[in-house]
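Reopening this one. Same input as before:
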Amino acid sequence: MASKKKVSIAVIKRLPRYYRYLSDLLLMDITRISSKELSSRMGITASQIRQDLNCFGGFGQQGYGYNVELLYNEIANILGINDRFQTIILGAGNMGQALAHYGNFEKRGFKTIGLFDIDPKLIGKKINGLEVLDMETLEEFVSKNRVDIAMLTVPYEHAREAAERVARLGIKGLWNFSPMDLRLPYEMVIENVHLSDSLMVLGYKIKEKFE
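Same output, byte for byte:
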């Protein structure tokens, strides 16, 4: 990483969006771009883009703009995409299966290597090439495989128990899709995701714009 200084979470949350747009630019064979041009594409002010990227060293050149491939690779490095994270999914219901089928995760450096459930009807089923394993085998699986992140899609009543279980196994990160906001007394990074929150925000914006 270009800098070890503390960077706000708001900046960090914008980095994946920069990464996506830069990926599109590379596909269009665009080799350099100014902050003004990037601003026009992304709907973020040029000043905001420069401020965000200056948190990590800037990467731009006066009168030239940004080297698209260089910036793309630098952001990948900052986000840890080049480290190739290995993930597992706890809960093979509708959400778990959708995550297992989503191909962009591996393109972004997140490879799913295990899928677990407690339902006998699901155990043994193949989901996108992954066999659903019994949760009883979780500890053995983690002892034999490097697992960096657990994706949690279990019901509310099982969320804390499952989260604490993977935390005790030393898994570094938890991507929590359960209805419960989780905070645990372990050395684990937790990202709580609530799709309904985003949908409600969309509903508010529609109401504000059209009523």
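So the earlier flakiness isn't reproducible anymore. For the record, Residues 100 and 128 are 7 Å apart (CA to CA).
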